[in-house]
């Protein structure tokens, strides 16, 4: 396979840029910062985890509603980049704003976090849709996997600096409070995200599009309704989306709530940060490995492999007690997380009509985001009902089972390697 092109590498670098947000804000520093703020305000551990889950459900619901509508409009010439830029700016701005919210205002923190997450996840919808513009069907598995791999590697660089600052602050080696160190982390993330998105803006353009019409919004709604009416025409595509709905639910929930889960188990924040760092390092080569193995064994078989690992993760989580157990859990997740995400993206990109990529990635978004509503709600409800966070994570295994069963019904012949 020839070297990656400038467009492919520029697209890949957005994963490098935005993954810092996913790791530092979504998974690591913000949940710890928020949990500490909520605890200081007298909120119980189970309730604060539940509130975080409910917040994730709210912003994913908003994105799920907007995805197909905005995606359909963005299929017009020149609009994909504009929508991407809007959500990117929203995400970066509110991420930086987190640094200026008093640490005792846990509810305001959740609101600002919601806005930053809408920006981050909204930009990702259009970023994913650009995959059809920067490469060919034959190269999609490797390019998509390279994106996730670069994301894992790139996110660790600011993360190392942030871990060092937080640990030095906790150890009183530098004259900073842990809260101040966390605020520095929020600013660093915003700067990193903005800086490494420049290649995306400079070198990636929309190759596949629909010509502008007199009333683009009205016509977009007509096209969206037409697609829904002709759903049988896209049976394979929507069958895959249904499977994706269930299995990506569990994947996303484990990512967004893992730190809060570890905190509830009594694992020290410094240990959690180190575990998350190692998870990123281990996940990078596995993402590339999944992409290459998919060329030999097909995307579906590798998706089965990743889903099976997550089923083991859910079962093991029920019995998890020690920091060592959490290490084992994290390494299992690292072995499959990037592979499932990258192959789902490239598999779907091969199925969609290229000129309508944004519209269909809007559906990809709505299925993924609605799944992310169900997962946190399931964990939150089960955790509050049983008073046991382990039981909440365990409850996710049923979603992976359902996803695997539906995926088995997706015809192999519709996607060629």
TrEMBL record:
<protein>
    <recommendedName>
        <fullName>Major facilitator superfamily (MFS) profile domain-containing protein</fullName>
    </recommendedName>
</protein>
<dbReference type="InterPro" id="IPR050495">
    <property type="entry name" value="ATG22/LtaA_families"/>
</dbReference>
<keyword id="KW-1133">Transmembrane helix</keyword>
<feature type="transmembrane region" description="Helical">
    <location>
        <begin position="237"/>
        <end position="260"/>
    </location>
</feature>
<keyword id="KW-0813">Transport</keyword>
<dbReference type="GO" id="GO:0022857">
    <property type="term" value="F:transmembrane transporter activity"/>
</dbReference>
<feature type="transmembrane region" description="Helical">
    <location>
        <begin position="148"/>
        <end position="169"/>
    </location>
</feature>
<feature type="transmembrane region" description="Helical">
    <location>
        <begin position="83"/>
        <end position="101"/>
    </location>
</feature>
<feature type="transmembrane region" description="Helical">
    <location>
        <begin position="391"/>
        <end position="410"/>
    </location>
</feature>
<feature type="transmembrane region" description="Helical">
    <location>
        <begin position="12"/>
        <end position="34"/>
    </location>
</feature>
<feature type="transmembrane region" description="Helical">
    <location>
        <begin position="107"/>
        <end position="127"/>
    </location>
</feature>
<keyword id="KW-0472">Membrane</keyword>
<keyword id="KW-0812">Transmembrane</keyword>
<dbReference type="InterPro" id="IPR024671">
    <property type="entry name" value="Atg22-like"/>
</dbReference>
<dbReference type="Pfam" id="PF11700">
    <property type="entry name" value="ATG22"/>
</dbReference>
<feature type="transmembrane region" description="Helical">
    <location>
        <begin position="360"/>
        <end position="379"/>
    </location>
</feature>
<dbReference type="GO" id="GO:0005886">
    <property type="term" value="C:plasma membrane"/>
</dbReference>
<dbReference type="InterPro" id="IPR036259">
    <property type="entry name" value="MFS_trans_sf"/>
</dbReference>
<feature type="transmembrane region" description="Helical">
    <location>
        <begin position="54"/>
        <end position="76"/>
    </location>
</feature>
<feature type="domain" description="Major facilitator superfamily (MFS) profile">
    <location>
        <begin position="236"/>
        <end position="417"/>
    </location>
</feature>
<dbReference type="InterPro" id="IPR020846">
    <property type="entry name" value="MFS_dom"/>
</dbReference>
<feature type="transmembrane region" description="Helical">
    <location>
        <begin position="302"/>
        <end position="320"/>
    </location>
</feature>
<feature type="transmembrane region" description="Helical">
    <location>
        <begin position="181"/>
        <end position="201"/>
    </location>
</feature>
<feature type="transmembrane region" description="Helical">
    <location>
        <begin position="272"/>
        <end position="290"/>
    </location>
</feature>
């Amino acid at each position: 396979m020839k070297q990656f092109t400038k467009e492919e590498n520029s697209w890949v670098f957005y994963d490098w840029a935005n993954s810092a947000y996913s790791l530092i804000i979504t998974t690591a520093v913000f949940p710890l910062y928020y949990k500490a703020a909520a605890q200081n305000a007298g909120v119980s551990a189970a309730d604060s985890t539940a509130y975080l889950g409910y917040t994730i459900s709210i912003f994913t619901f908003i994105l799920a509603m907007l995805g197909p509508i905005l995606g359909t409009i963005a299929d017009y010439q020149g609009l994909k980049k504009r929508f991407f830029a809007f959500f990117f700016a929203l995400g970066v701005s509110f991420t930086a704003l987190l640094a200026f919210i008093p640490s005792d205002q846990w509810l305001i923190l959740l609101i600002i976090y919601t806005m930053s997450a809408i920006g981050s996840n909204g930009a990702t919808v259009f970023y994913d849709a650009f995959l059809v513009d920067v490469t060919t069907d034959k190269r999609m598995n490797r390019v998509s996997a390279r994106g996730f791999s670069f994301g894992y590697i790139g996110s660790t660089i600011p993360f190392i600096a942030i871990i060092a600052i937080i640990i030095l602050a906790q150890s009183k080696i530098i004259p900073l409070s842990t809260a101040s160190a966390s605020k520095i982390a929020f600013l660093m993330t915003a700067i990193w995200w903005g800086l490494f998105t420049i290649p995306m803006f400079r070198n990636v353009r929309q190759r596949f599009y629909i010509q502008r019409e007199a009333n683009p919004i009205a016509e977009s709604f007509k096209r969206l309704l037409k697609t829904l009416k002709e759903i049988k025409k896209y049976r394979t595509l929507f069958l895959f989306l249904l499977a994706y709905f269930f299995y990506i639910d569990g994947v996303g929930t484990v990512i967004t709530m893992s730190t809060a889960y570890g905190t509830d188990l009594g694992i020290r924040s410094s240990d959690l940060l180190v575990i998350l760092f190692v998870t990123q390092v281990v996940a990078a080569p596995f993402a590339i490995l999944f992409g290459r193995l998919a060329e030999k064994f097909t995307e579906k078989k590798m998706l089965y492999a990743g889903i099976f690992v997550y089923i083991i993760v859910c079962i093991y989580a029920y019995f998890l007690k020690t920091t060592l157990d959490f290490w084992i859990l994290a390494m299992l997740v690292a072995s499959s997380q990037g592979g499932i995400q990258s192959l789902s993206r490239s598999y779907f990109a091969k199925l969609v009509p290229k000129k309508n990529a944004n519209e269909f990635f809007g559906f990809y978004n709505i299925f993924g985001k609605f799944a992310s509503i169900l997962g946190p709600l399931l964990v939150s409800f089960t955790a509050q009902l049983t008073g046991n966070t382990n039981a909440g994570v365990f409850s996710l295994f049923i979603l992976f089972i359902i996803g695997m069963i539906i995926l088995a019904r997706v015809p192999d012949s519709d996607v060629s390697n």
